[in-house]
Specification:
Blueprint: H1 27-31, H2 41-83, H3 85-89, H4 92-117, H5 135-139, H6 144-153, H7 156-201
């Protein structure tokens, strides 16, 4: 998971001393960006920022899970081909053209898959003060009392600005992940095509 995980640090809406009320959970889908009557404007902004951050983090987790599934598929294709490599090597055109293509696409796939899993955000101007959400800044404080003091000393606007900075960082990570994930998927599609060609013309099975 990217280093901007903020789950469990701040309860939704509680820092501002507001009670979202029973209708707050469904108000976003019903009225778009219009604050529900049960939330004060600042509490609604915080609640909406929290939802956006969690949504992006969920997409990141889903992308990583799909990447793991693609890695398993690619590994199986390469393993099945390697088990019958001796016989395929006796087929001249298969050995000279198809097998190297399969190897190159497999290497390209694993490069893009690892780039997806290890994606980092684009350079972003640092904030003026340590974050209350980013775990690296949290652990960078000397002890719990320092973090507690910074937490309670933060104003509503500072907390919302901190959340918005985390949203920007997570969104940058997500954009990189989706770009490399698409490239990995394309490489795997070529692997599947080459594998089917080996099955049809090289009598792999």
């Amino acid at each position: 998971m990217p280093p901007t995980e903020g789950n469990g640090v701040i309860g939704k809406g509680r820092l501002l001393g507001q009670n979202p009320g029973p209708g707050a959970a469904g108000s976003q889908g019903e009225s778009g960006l219009i604050p529900p009557p049960s939330l004060a404007p600042e509490a609604w902004r915080y609640d909406h920022a929290w939802r956006v951050l969690n949504l992006n983090q969920e997409i990141i987790r889903a992308t990583d899970q799909k990447t793991y599934m693609l890695i398993v598929m690619s590994t199986l294709l390469v393993s099945f081909t390697a088990n019958d490599l001796d016989r395929l090597s006796r087929e001249g055109w298969l050995h000279d053209a198809v097998l190297p293509s399969l190897g190159l696409t497999a290497i390209a796939f694993f490069v893009f898959a690892l780039a997806t899993l290890l994606a980092r955000h684009d350079p972003i101007a640092p904030t003026t003060q340590p974050s209350l959400v980013f775990f690296g800044h949290i652990l960078g404080r000397r002890d719990i009392s320092t973090y507690r003091s910074d937490f309670h000393a933060a104003s509503q606007h500072e907390v919302i600005d901190d959340m918005l900075a985390q949203i920007l960082i997570v969104s940058s990570i997500l954009r990189t992940k989706l770009a490399t994930y698409r490239r990995a998927w394309i490489c795997l599609a070529f692997q599947v095509g080459i594998f089917l060609a080996l099955c049809l013309f090289g009598h792999l099975f």
